[in-house]
Amino acid sequence: MNEISCVFPGLRRVFRALRYATRSAAIGVAFGTAICAAFCAPSAQAQSPWPSKPVRMVLGLPPGSGSDLLARALAQRFTPLWGQSVVVENRPGANTNIGTEVVARAAPDGHTILFGLYSGLTVNPHLYAKMPYDTFRDFAPITLICSLGQVLVAHPSLAVNNVAELIALAKSEPGKIAYGSLGAGSQMHLLSETLAHKAGIKFLHVPYKGVPQMMTATLAGEVQLTWASMFSTRGPVSAGRLKALGFSGTKRSPMMPGVPTFVELGIPEIEIGVWYGLLAPAGTPRAIVERIHADTARLLAEPEFRDKEVLAKGYEPIGVGPEEFAAFLKRDFARQGERVRMSGAKFE
What we know:
By secondary structure, the chain is α/β, with parallel strands linked by helices.
């Protein structure tokens, strides 16, 4: 070919054009094949719609708790919306770490989600020397469902009617006023020790195995203080069997509008405490995350569900999306870390 091209210089340009055309044709065939495959073959989404099987909603607490009842109310309403059964799976243990780890290790396909609590995600990482998961690496936040403010209640025998009087009495009798909790690291313990630290006072900590035992002890006067939800304390407070001193919610509760928040009392470190949210394993498709958030927000906006399952039980509905929930997790992680530091609690 070189000899011929030397005799006929124009042939060199012809051969180059032929080689280019050949390569372009091959590329064109490959491109056309890919386009045909993309449009003619069924899409992955069409082959695997979500959900394609029952959805597990894992909760790190036993059946029968207030958290469990809220999770089951959501699951019952999600079932017809998603066209698949949504089953609450209780995996209690290690202060909710066991159930939380189940979701962290699950396939990120949207068929396993976590009904998460503050304890497993923003408290335990500061309490335990070793954690089986990472709050920010192993989960995709979906939505912050609601919060549950805690009421500081006192037995009638305690000669105080508000937080200022409680602080004054505690300063005059350091370590004599006892409060009940569910043990080191529980929200009652963290809130009490945060109050003590900020006010410069000292309480006596008395742990109990469960809420019924703690409330029974408080009503009997075995301990003078404890923290509980508006729902569980409204009756005893109305009957004069307990006195409500302060509320850890972001705003006053319509259940007890006369009880001030700790923000109003100048102690903003005692705010919220208990919250509930939905999370998925990290890597769960964004479309699934957004679908679950949208359906949760829709339920929280429905008067029947909102009034009966949320407001009537003392919860404050929230329903923010993935980005807002992720930002909240970072803030609460830092806040709970400070509370744990003040309490001195630490688990091996």
